[in-house]
Amino acid sequence: MTGKRVYIQEVATRDGFQNEAQFVDTDAKIALIDDLSTCGYAKIEVTSFTSPKAIPALCDAEAVMHRIARREGTVYTVLVPNVRGAERALSCGVDEVNLVMSVSESHNRTNLRMSREQSFAQLRDVIGVVKQTKVAINVSLSTAMGCPMEGDIAQEDVLGWTQRFADLGVHGVTLCDTTGMAYPSQVGALCAATRERFPALEVTLHFHNTRGMALANTLAALDVGVDRFDASLGGLGGCPYAPGATGNVCTEELVHMLELDGYDTGVDLSALLSASALLPGLIGHDVPSQLLKAGRRLDLHAMPCAACDGQPEQRAFVQEN
Amino acid sequence: MTGKRVYIQEVATRDGFQNEAQFVDTDAKIALIDDLSTCGYAKIEVTSFTSPKAIPALCDAEAVMHRIARREGTVYTVLVPNVRGAERALSCGVDEVNLVMSVSESHNRTNLRMSREQSFAQLRDVIGVVKQTKVAINVSLSTAMGCPMEGDIAQEDVLGWTQRFADLGVHGVTLCDTTGMAYPSQVGALCAATRERFPALEVTLHFHNTRGMALANTLAALDVGVDRFDASLGGLGGCPYAPGATGNVCTEELVHMLELDGYDTGVDLSALLSASALLPGLIGHDVPSQLLKAGRRLDLHAMPCAACDGQPEQRAFVQEN
């Protein structure tokens, strides 16, 4: 490939599964992650080292992390909420820990049950523990492009929280559009400002497709040089504020568009679609992926026989434009 | 508004309804179109003057065209397949006729049951009739960005068919991504070439969201100066090649993004969402619109009570990023 390299980070087995009512069996999780490992991702967010009481869906974090077959070239990251979680994660030999807090005070209290300052203090302790190892540290800033309770989030607030974590030595920051409030011109401005102020930070964009704009927002981020995106297989991961709306941007749709536009994602789209086709069987319902239904752009169709026999009243499709 | 003007053209009552199994009552159609007329569209494609046997869903074209309340400033256009349809349309005082054929031979034969040359000859006759009046003429070129049977369509083919219609004096051309095969870099290149070669033609883009790229493709078209887009309320209009996949780009999602990005669409988004909410009642099923489910970006939510009482095991949402 000669296209510009773009890094794709899969979050379905963490951000997706944590929202599912049906427990995905540990062996099935491991088999899926092993499938994903063959797809060529830059990073896979495997699971979350949270209290099993808080997120029963991911109660098998240790077993999963220990038993997956890790591929050279893929970074295996896990979500870690506190020092206890960090110790559990480190004991499994993770490549990276991903920390999370919200830029919005209301969302942080709703999502994590504490103030932002309490979250920051807790994550500072986690960073202190992890920095004693060679494990990388990323921080995900939720509601960076809007809060469903507070509305607009000032760009300066996002940059301010990024600064506080950069000062603690994290290697990367993920700007999360937690509930699909981002729009292209906002994304472009925020990404440009973040990259300008923090040239040494690895910047990831985490889009949700709640209002249909995830791929448009991706273009806006690419335009200002962002090259790292979270995405969820099948579009798994709902939005608690919009029942029935889609959640995370769908990995196969993201990769499909990027490859068509000439980017080198490193990801095997055919393998991705095969893995995505397994999801409904694992979670017990259909997934939002449009690409899984429609097939790739050049997955062609035969002409319907009725088109050849000239019977005007038996038209299969009429005047579709 | 000081933003750049973008023209929004509604196609739900034609391109959407023609695909519906349930007949929408004539009075209900008229009431919906009258609602849409208050929304501020640049153009509304009202119906199709096709054989009622071919498209029973639109058998009431005359009644609808005669009885809607037309708003100053909105162009009322109709699809016309042949001279008979043109005569019917002209008798109703339409502002514009919209002609349709495919750039792909296979799709033209499937969709219209004749060769492209037969279609062109038929449409040339229509143009001959309509040019005797002051009614405007637009031609919609289907499969301009890919054919579900033939695959890629050469840009030169699209420009060639555009040239043939430009030579006949049509005032506008619509480049249709009939089955959602367009991708951003392709859209940018095709739109730039079309605008450069035909500076006097009104150029419309007609996107389908079959593979999730409609809004991203819209950004690519805007980037090269295209300012006119077809869209379908609620995202109505399916894709016969991808059962269950979404069809036309959803008007409210398009307008929502454009307004956030500072464009002046002339369209009242609140009125649009109210009209879209009526669709399931008219057609008997849910519509693809994500915005109808999720609400506008700044339609805010109250903090859940559980967020305030500090009970860690009763979290409503946990570690959503």
UniProtKB/TrEMBL annotation, chains A, B:
Highest taxon above the source species: Bacteria
InterPro entries (alphabetical): Aldolase_TIM (IPR013785), HMGL (IPR043594), PYR_CT (IPR000891)
Gene3D superfamilies referenced in this protein's UniProt entry, alphabetically: Aldolase class I
Entry GO MF terms: hydroxymethylglutaryl-CoA lyase activity; metal ion binding
Residues of the Pyruvate carboxyltransferase domain: 6-273
Signal sequence, renumbered to the chain: none
Keywords: Lyase, Metal-binding
Family: Belongs to the HMG-CoA lyase family.
Record's protein name: Hydroxymethylglutaryl-CoA lyase
